[in-house]
C-alpha cells in the first residue's frame, strides 16, 4: 500500500446538482428568476437549411403573464415563415398573437401556462397545423374556431379543467390522437365515431361514471384509456369497436367483467386492475375468444379469484404478459402451464409457497418472473432447474428461511448473476442467445446429468474415507494431548510473567483514570449548577421538573455511532386500542405524512400574498398547482423529499427485520440523494437542503454519520436548526411505541445523522412521542402534547456543547412555540425563518389542537388546507401535521378524494402491509 495514506475521495464530488441547491431556510421571500424559453422560428429558404431564431423571455418567479412588445414584434417580423412556436412553461393567461399570417405553422406548444379559456385569435387560419399542445393549463372551455383546424392530427388537452368534451373536437376530421386525461369530464357529448380518423384516445383520470350507449359505437379507435374513472359498466354498442387493440379499464368501479369485451377480437392488451368491486368474481370462459390477447392484467389490493381460472384460459396462446397480482391464489393454476408464448409472469401478492413439478418444462419463452409478497420459504426447484435464461426473478418480501448468501450460491443463480452483468454491459439480450452460448448450455446440461450418476458413487467413497479419517484423528489427538501436557508447564511460567506486567500496566491506568475523574467531577459540578438554573426556567413556564438522562452526559466524541436492535413486535396490553384501530392509526400516520407533504408542495416557498394571487382560498388539488420552475419537478399529486426520506426509514426497518441502523440509513440517504427512488422513475433526490447536503459531503458520513453532523453543526457556528430531520422522523413513533425511552433513542439515532442541534432533536422527539402516546390509546389531547413537549425538552438539559445563555434562549423558544394555538403565532412565511424546526413542529401541534376530538375527514382536509395556505416550507409543515393528524383520526378518516390523487399510493400501501407483519399485527 505504500507509506503515504491514500487520499479519501468524496463520493459526491462528481455529482454537480448538489452545488446548485440552496438551503430551504436560506430562500428569500421573493426573488428574481430568469425563465428562459425558446420560441423556435424557422426561416424556410430555397436550397438552405432551416435557421432558428431564439427569443429569451425574462420574468419574475411567478412567470410572465404577457409578452413584451419586443417579443411580439420579433415574432410578427417572421410570422409568415414560422414553422414551430413553443410558449411552454410561462405563466401566460393567453397568447397575444394573431395567427392569421402564420400560414406555415405546423406545431404550437402552449403547455404549462395559466390559460383559463382558449383565447387563440384566428387560430382557424392555421391550415398547416398538425400538432397542438394546450396541456397543463386551466382551460374550462375551447373556442369554436378550434374545430376549423383542418389538418390537426395530435391534440393534447390533458391536465386542464374541462367537465365535458368540447363540441368543437368532434369536427376535427383528421384528428388521430387526443389526450383528455386528468380533467373533470363526466361523459362524452357526442359519439366518438364523429372523429373519423381518431385512433388514440386518453380519457384517464376523469370522473366518468355512466357512459352513453352510442359514445363508443362504430369508431376507428385502436387505443382507448379509460383508467382512473368511476365506470361501473360498459355500453353494449362498444362491442363494435373492431379495431381496438389496447383497452385500459383499471382503477374503476366495474361490478363484473363486461361480456362485450370478448367481442373485441383484435384486442391485444386488456387491463382490469384495481376494480375492487370485482372481488370474488370469476374470469369467464369466453375469455378464450380474445385470440390476439398479448397482455392481461387483473390485479388489485384485496382482490381475489374465488373460483379457479377457466380451462379456456389456456387457449390464449398469444399471451406474452400476464399479471395476476393480489388475487388470493394459493397455487399456480394448471391452465397457465400451457401458455407457451408467455414472457412475463407477475403473481405478486398471492399466497404461493411452491410450484408444480411441470413448471421447469413449461414456459419456454419466459424471461421475467415476479413472486414478491408470497409465502415461499425457499427458491422452488422449478426455478432452479428451469432451462430458460431469465432476465429477472423476484422473490422480494417472502418468508425465506435460507440465508441470503446461500441463495446466491444455489444452482442456476450463479448463472443468472453472470447473465445480468453481461446484460448491463450491453453484451447480451434475453431470448437472443449466440450459437456459442447455446452450445455451452448444452454441454453444461450433459455434465450435470453425468454428475448426478456419479454423485451416489462418490457418497459411498466419502463415507469410507470419513471412517478412516476418524481413526487417524483419534491417534493424532492422543499424541497431541501428550505434547500439550509437556508444553503446559512452560506456558504457565510465561503466563505468570505476563500477569505481572499486566498488573503494572493496570496500576498506571488506574492512576490516570483517577486524575481524569477529578477533572470531570469539577466540570460536572459546573454543569449541574447550570442545569439547576435551566430547570427553574422550565418549571416557571409550566413544564415541570425534568431529570437529565445521565447516559447522554458524555461528550459526543466519546460515543459517535450506536446500533439499536429493535424488538418491535407489539406486546400484549401495550395499548387500549383493538388491532384494527391500531392498524388504522399506523397507516394513517404513514399515509398522512405523504398526504400533507403532497398538499404542501402547492405553496412551498410562497408567502400568503403570493398564494392569494395564484390560488383561490380553500382546498388546492393537484390539478390546481401552478407549474412554475419549482413545482414542475414533481409528478402531479406526488410528495417530496420529506416523505421519501421517511420511507427510507421504513425500508431500513423492513430490510433489517426491525433493526434500526444509522450506518445503513446513511447509505440509503446518500443513494437516494444521487438517484432518488427508482420505482418512482426518479433521476435524483429532489429538494435537498443545505444542512443535509453538507453532511452528505462530509468525508466520514458513510462510516460515522453522527460525527459528520456534529462537525457540520460546529462548522456553521452551532446555529443551524433546520427541519430536515423532523420532516422524516414521524414513523419512529410507531416501533416500540409502548416504551417511550426506546422511542427517544430511535428518534435520536436517525435525527443525529444529519441534524445535531438540540432544537432539532427536541422537536423530533416531541413529534414521535406524541404519535407513540396516541398509539398507546391516550385520548386526552392536551395531556399528550404536554407530555411530548416535556420529554423533548430533556435535550436542552443534557446539552453540553452550547453556552448557558444559548441553551436558555433555545429552550424558551421551544416552550413558546409548543404552546401556540393559532397560525398567526407561528408566522410560517416569515422571510429567512421558513425552515426553522420549532415553527414546523409547532404547526403540527396547532393542527391537532384545531382538530380537537373530531374524526371528520372534511375537517382534516380543511385544517391541512389552512396550514398549507400559510406558505413557507409548507410541504414539511404539511408532512408532520399530516402524520400527527393521520395517527389521531386513522387512515379511514383521511380525505380520500385527495389521497387518490397520489400516484404512488399503492407502492406505499404494500410496504405498510409488510410493516404490519413485522409488528406482528
Shape: globular
Task: Extract low-pLDDT stretches.
Answer: 1-66, 403-447, 530-566
Task: Using the 3D structure, state the CATH architecture of the domain at 550-557 and 579-919.
Answer: Orthogonal Bundle
Number of alpha- plus pi-helical segments:
21
Radius of gyration: 33 Å
Q: Give the percentage of residues in beta strands.
A: 5-15%
| Strand runs, count | 20
Oligomer: single chain
CATH topology of the domain at 550-557 and 579-919: ADP-ribosylglycohydrolase fold
Overall average pLDDT: 78
Percent of residues in helices: 25-40%
Protein name: Disease resistance R13L4/SHOC-2-like LRR domain-containing protein
InterPro entries: ADP-ribosylglycohydrolase, Leu-rich_rpt, Leu-rich_rpt_4, Leu-rich_rpt_typical-subtyp, LRR_dom_sf, LRR_R13L4/SHOC2-like, Ribosyl_crysJ1, Ribosyl_crysJ1_sf
Cofactor: Mg(2+)
Keywords: Leucine-rich repeat, Magnesium, Metal-binding, Repeat
Amino acid at each position: 500500500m505504500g507509506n503515504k495514506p491514500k487520499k479519501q475521495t468524496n463520493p459526491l464530488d462528481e455529482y454537480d446538482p448538489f452545488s446548485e441547491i440552496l438551503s430551504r431556510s436560506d430562500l428569500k421571500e421573493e426573488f428574481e428568476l430568469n425563465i428562459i424559453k425558446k420560441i423556435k422560428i424557422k426561416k424556410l429558404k430555397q436550397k438552405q437549411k432551416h435557421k432558428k431564431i431564439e427569443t429569451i423571455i425574462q420574468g419574475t418567479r411567478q412567470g410572465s403573464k404577457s409578452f413584451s412588445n419586443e417579443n411580439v414584434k420579433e415574432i410578427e417580423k417572421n410570422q409568415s415563415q414560422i414553422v414551430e412556436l413553443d410558449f411552454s412553461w410561462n405563466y401566460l393567461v393567453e397568447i397575444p398573437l394573431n395567427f392569421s399570417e402564420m400560414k406555415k405553422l405546423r406545431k404550437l406548444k402552449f403547455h404549462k401556462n395559466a390559460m383559463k379559456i382558449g383565447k387563440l385569435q384566428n387560430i382557424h387560419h392555421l391550415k398547416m397545423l398538425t400538432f397542438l399542445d394546450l396541456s397543463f393549463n386551466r382551460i374550462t372551455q375551447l373556442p369554436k374556431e378550434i374545430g376549423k383546424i383542418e389538418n390537426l392530427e395530435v391534440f393534447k388537452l390533458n391536465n386542464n379543467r374541462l367537465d365535458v368534451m368540447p363540441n368543437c373536437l368532434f369536427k376535427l376530421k383528421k384528428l388521430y390522437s387526443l389526450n383528455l386525461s386528468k380533467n373533470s369530464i363526466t361523459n362524452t357529448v357526442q359519439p366518438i365515431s364523429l372523429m373519423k380518423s381518431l385512433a388514440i384516445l386518453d380519457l384517464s383520470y376523469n370522473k366518468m361514471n355512466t357512459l352513453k350507449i352510442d359514445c363508443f359505437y362504430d369508431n376507428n379507435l385502436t387505443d382507448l384509456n379509460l383508467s382512473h374513472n368511476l365506470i361501473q359498466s360498459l355500453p353494449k354498442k362498444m362491442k363494435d369497436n373492431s379495431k381496438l387493440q389496447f383497452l385500459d379499464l383499471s382503477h374503476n368501479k366495474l361490478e363484473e367483467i363486461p361480456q362485450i369485451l370478448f367481442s373485441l377480437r383484435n384486442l391485444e392488451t386488456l387491463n382490469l386492475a384495481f376494480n375492487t368491486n370485482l372481488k370474488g368474481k370469476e374470469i369467464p370462459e369466453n375469455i378464450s375468444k380474445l385470440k390476439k390477447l398479448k397482455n392481461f392484467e387483473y390485479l388489485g389490493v384485496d382482490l381475489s379469484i374465488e373460483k379457479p381460472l377457466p380451462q379456456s384460459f389456456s387457449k390464449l396462446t398469444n399471451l406474452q404478459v400476464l399479471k395476476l397480482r393480489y388475487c388470493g391464489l394459493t397455487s399456480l393454476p394448471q391452465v397457465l402451464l400451457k401458455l407457451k408464448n408467455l414472457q412475463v409472469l407477475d403473481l405478486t401478492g398471492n399466497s404461493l409457497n411452491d410450484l408444480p413439478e411441470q413448471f421447469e418444462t413449461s414456459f419456454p419463452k419466459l424471461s421475467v418472473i415476479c413472486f414478491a409478497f408470497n409465502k415461499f420459504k425457499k427458491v422452488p426447484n422449478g426455478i432452479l432447474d428451469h432451462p430458460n435464461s431469465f432476465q429477472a426473478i423476484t422473490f422480494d418480501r417472502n418468508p425465506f428461511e435460507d440465508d441470503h448468501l446461500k441463495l446466491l450460491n444455489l444452482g442456476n443463480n450463479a448463472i443468472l448473476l453472470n447473465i445480468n452483468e453481461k446484460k448491463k454491459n450491453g453484451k447480451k439480450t434475453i431470448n437472443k442467445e449466440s450459437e456459442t452460448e447455446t452450445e455451452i448450455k448444452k454441454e453444461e446440461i450433459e455434465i450435470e446429468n453425468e454428475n448426478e450418476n456419479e454423485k451416489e458413487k462418490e457418497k459411498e467413497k466419502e463415507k469410507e474415507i470419513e471412517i478412516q479419517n476418524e481413526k487417524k484423528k483419534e491417534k493424532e489427538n492422543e499424541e497431541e494431548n501428550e505434547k500439550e501436557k509437556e508444553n503446559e508447564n512452560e506456558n504457565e511460567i510465561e503466563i505468570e510473567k505476563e500477569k505481572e506486567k499486566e498488573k503494572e500496566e493496570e496500576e498506571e491506568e488506574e492512576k490516570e483514570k483517577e486524575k481524569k475523574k477529578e477533572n470531570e467531577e469539577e466540570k460536572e459540578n459546573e454543569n449541574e449548577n447550570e442545569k439547576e438554573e435551566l430547570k427553574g426556567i422550565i418549571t416557571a413556564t409550566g413544564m415541570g421538573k425534568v431529570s437529565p438522562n445521565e447516559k447522554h452526559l458524555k461528550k459526543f466524541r466519546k460515543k459517535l455511532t450506536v446500533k439499536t436492535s429493535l424488538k418491535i413486535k407489539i406486546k400484549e396490553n401495550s395499548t387500549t386500542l383493538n388491532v384494527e384501530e391500531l392498524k388504522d392509526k399506523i397507516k394513517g400516520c404513514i399515509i398522512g405524512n405523504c398526504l400533507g407533504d403532497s398538499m404542501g408542495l402547492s405553496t412551498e416557498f410562497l408567502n400568503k400574498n403570493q398564494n392569494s394571487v395564484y390560488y383561490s382560498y380553500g382546498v388546492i388539488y393537484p390539478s390546481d398547482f401552478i407549474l412554475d420552475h419549482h413545482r414542475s419537478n414533481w409528478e402531479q399529486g406526488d410528495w417530496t423529499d420529506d416523505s421519501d426520506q421517511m420511507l427510507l426509514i421504513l425500508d431500513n426497518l423492513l430490510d433489517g427485520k426491525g433493526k434500526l441502523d444509522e450506518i445503513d440509513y446513511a447509505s440509503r440517504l446518500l443513494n437516494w440523494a444521487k438517484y432518488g427512488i427508482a420505482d418512482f422513475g426518479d433521476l435524483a433526490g429532489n429538494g435537498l437542503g443545505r444542512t443535509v447536503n453538507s453532511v452528505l459531503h462530509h468525508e466520514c458520513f458513510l462510516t460515522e454519520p453522527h460525527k459528520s453532523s456534529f462537525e457540520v453543526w460546529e462548522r456553521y457556528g452551532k446555529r443551524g436548526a433546520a427541519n430536515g430531520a423532523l420532516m422524516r422522523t414521524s414513523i419512529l413513533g410507531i416501533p416500540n411505541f409502548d416504551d417511550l425511552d426506546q422511542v427517544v433513542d430511535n428518534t435520536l439515532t436517525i435525527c443525529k445523522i444529519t441534524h445535531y442541534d438540540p432544537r432539532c432533536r427536541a422537536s423530533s422527539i416531541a413529534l414521535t412521542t406524541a404519535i407513540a402516546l396516541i398509539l398507546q390509546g391516550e385520548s386526552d389531547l392536551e395531556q399528550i402534547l404536554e407530555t411530548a413537549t416535556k420529554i423533548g425538552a430533556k435535550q436542552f438539559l443534557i446539552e453540553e456543547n452550547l453556552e448557558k445563555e444559548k441553551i436558555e434562549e433555545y429552550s424558551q423558544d421551544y416552550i413558546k412555540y409548543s404552546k401556540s394555538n393559532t397560525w398567526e403565532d407561528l408566522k410560517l412565511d416569515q422571510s429567512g425563518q421558513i425552515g426553522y424546526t420549532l415553527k414546523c413542529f409547532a404547526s403540527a401541534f396547532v393542527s391537532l389542537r384545531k382538530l380537537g376530538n373530531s374524526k371528520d375527514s372534511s375537517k382534516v382536509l380543511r385544517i391541512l388546507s389552512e396550514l398549507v395556505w400559510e406558505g413557507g416550507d409548507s410541504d414539511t409543515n404539511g408532512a408532520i401535521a399530516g402524520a400527527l393528524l393521520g395517527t389521531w383520526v386513522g387512515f379511514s378518516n383521511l380525505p380520500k378524494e385527495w389521497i387518490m390523487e397520489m400516484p404512488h399510493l399503492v407502492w406505499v400501501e404494500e410496504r405498510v402491509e409488510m410493516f404490519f407483519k413485522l409488528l406482528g399485527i
